[in-house]
Amino acid sequence: EGDSADFDEEVTSVCPFCGVGCQVSLKIKDGKVRDVEGIDGPANEGRLCVKGRFGFDYIQHPHRLTKPLIRREDAPDKGLNVDPGNPWTHFREATWEEALDKAGQGLADIRSYFGGRAVAGFGSAKCTNEEAYLFQKFIRQGFKHNNVDHCTRLCHASSVAALMENVGSGAVTASFNEIENAEVAIVIGANPTENHPVAATYFKQFAKRGGKLIVIDPRLQNGLKRHAAFNLQFRPSTDVALLNAMAHVIVEEKLYDRQYIEGFTEGFFEFRDHIRAFPPEKMADICGIDAETIRAVAREFARARTGMIFWGMGVSQHIHGTDNSRCLISLALLCGHVGRPGTGLHPLRGQNNVQGASDSGLIPQVMPDYQSVTDKDVRELFRHIWRGTPIDETPGLTVVEIMDRVYRGEIRGMYVLGENPAMSDPDVEHARRALANLDHLVVQDIFLTETAMFADVILPASALYEKTGTVTNTNRTVQVVRQAVQPPGEARQDWEILVQLARRVGLDWDYDDPREIFDEMKMSMRSLHHITWKRLETEGAVTYPCLGPDDPGQSVVFGDGFPRRAGRAQFTPARVTPPAESPDTDYPMILITGRQLEHWHTGSMTRRSLTLDTVEPEATCSLHPSTLRKLGVAAGGYVRLTTRRGSISIMAREDRNVAPGTAFMPFAFVESAANVLTNPQLDPFGKIPEFKYSAVRIEADTED
Ligand code: SF4
């Protein structure tokens, strides 16, 4: 680190990792990012976590793709046996012209021979809003269907489904910073000190000034547990039983907000009748939390003047993920904890731009701003804006459904931008076999990812600090990212590649600048009203909804009603659904997968950050000391994890925060890929896989 005189330039941008959306100052010297500091953005007020502060060096890694690549005619079979630093056995360099022609021709040929539905697309929550918008338009306009999705399907799709259903909007009702106005906050199925570290600093401050923090998770949390008034380490997958029991207490003890329920909700009486079957005394054995604690926590939340609920993928990544979220929404509605400062529902969004990519229409059921493809007026609006392109009225397929069709040979061509299904999909061997089946795969990325190893054409793209555009964080705040450095070699910005490829599949796109794309988005997206590029450049950030040209945006929404019929939110009763598979004699333990502080998702970026990978260079499986004793394995030894999908070897880590009988492992490491083990069964509403619960057998691994 040096002082500003050591650098040629300082450029303001946004951290590329998580949905907190910390603003950063990038220190540039000789055309490279040399240092990163937090600045006074609305979400971070100068703070950064280890990823934002030290993880930027991945953009200078020697494995960066600098030229387009085409699969060699004599390449061995498609698979993971490609060295990202020396891919020449499988790929050869090509000019942009040749690569774009081949990429576009391959997709167009499949469209001609098999129809547009034989091509599908995965876009990226790592790209800008403008790029996400272009990607969904590429598939919808070029191939005339809605089979386009992205990683929101693997993280908060069930939360969004429940929020859309019950409050009429898929985004948070209040920014996480509102916790400073709250008396009580529930954090459930989330581990913010690891996954949203700067947001976690606000949670700790809240507790330090006397706020009641209630942490509910099958894993105790190193970071938050000592700040919490209550730590409820409940049994995995029993969320609905526990949350319905809390609602039961609030109703039974008449702690609910009658005036709010009468004024702003519907469905209360049906909900009240439903939760009568969930007294805490009956649910205690099921969820592993004693009845008095359930009652105490319910009373704290209901009696508080202001309360918030934060949740993460521990809630959403279940086959009952939508029901879990319905329960949380009902709890907030019961207590009137929505629509005022210090109240709200906040699913902590994962990727830096997963909120923005979803808003921009990178979802198979909805166009930009969550406008349903089944609505004739919506289709007419986009037909008009997209110069006569008819919009398909059938909701498209989701990530896992697309991979199933690929596996069955019904989808024969794919365009994958910045996603890594060969690592991120559940039952990943199935996904890898599917990718190998494709007639034509175009991958656009910054590294030769595991997915790119299956590609026919690889298009070298840009990291966030190499591009210009807008991104939207978990708080609904739209922020501008500014190009600080040039992409390496011949790599290009993603929107430019999209435009060039679109022309190859017959689209007459003529965008010359991301601002033009943003202006087109504003034609159909009410959420962008009063948000202009100029404002973003001068003010740095504007939150939607924004009520006027001088309004910085609304941190809290729905104070005067909901965007649903009659302005009312809805109680939706949630039934208990067991996990898709339960422990048995062959697979007696429970595996939970997730992220860790130093690594990000499939590891393509953070595994190439020297600082971060030095701190955590190897995958570990966290096990309780009693489990290790039973296995006869010491911490640092190796264990073999086997599920009905596959088997891996991994180093054991002693962790008292993990309950006996459960195991936790991150999914960022290709050497011990967690998703070889995970269950692809889907939540029927959000279509999200059950990453958080697999029946597993764990044994000492004595092989070398
Ligand atoms: Fe980046 Fe998230 Fe860390 Fe902020 S909290 S620095 S956005 S990874």
Q: What are the main properties of this structure?
A:
704 residues, alpha/beta, seven-stranded mixed beta sheet, six-stranded mixed β-barrel, 24 helices, globular, binds iron/sulfur cluster
Pairing-aware structural class of the strands and helices?
alpha/beta
- pLDDT < 50 stretches: none
Number of strands: 30
Bound molecules: iron/sulfur cluster
So how many helices? Answer: 24
The end-to-end span amounts to: 42 Å
Helix content: 25-40%
Evaluate the radius of gyration: 24 Å
Give a brief outline of the structure:
This is Formate dehydrogenase major subunit. This protein is of the alpha/beta class and 704 residues long. It is 31% helix and 18% strand.
Write a structural description.
The protein starts with 8 loop residues before the first strand and ends with a strand. It has 704 residues and is an alpha/beta fold. The protein has a seven-stranded mixed beta sheet, with helices on both faces. Strands 23-27-24-26-25-30 form a six-stranded mixed barrel. The model has no long low-confidence stretch (mean pLDDT 95). The protein is built from 24 helices and 30 strands. The structure holds iron/sulfur cluster. Iron/sulfur cluster is lined by residues 15, 17-18, 20-22, 44, 48-49, 51-52, 196-198.
